[in-house]
Write a structure and sequence with these properties.
102 residues, alpha+beta
Length: 102
Amino acid sequence: MKYYAIVSLNMRNDSWVSDYLPNVTALVEQHGGRYLARTGNFERVEGDSANPDLQVVIEWPSKEAALAFYHDPAYQPYLQSRLAGSSSDFFLVAGEDIAVTN
């Protein structure tokens, strides 16, 4: 089953971004992931929490692939730099529809 990483980022500083983007993009691809969106261009339709600076959506072939990327030792220094330079919410969302019908 496909999984999706949904990440909302608020930047503290952007000094980490220039190193992060090319290296992490390659790691995402090595683990079978594909960026669907990396943007600050979004519109709130509902809700009242604070807007993040960036929204990121990554499609993964499976939960295992997503977690293998996240825990990959090669990713850890980039993860630490992202965590130091931003605050974020990172969710893994199952690509399923559990709508209940009666």
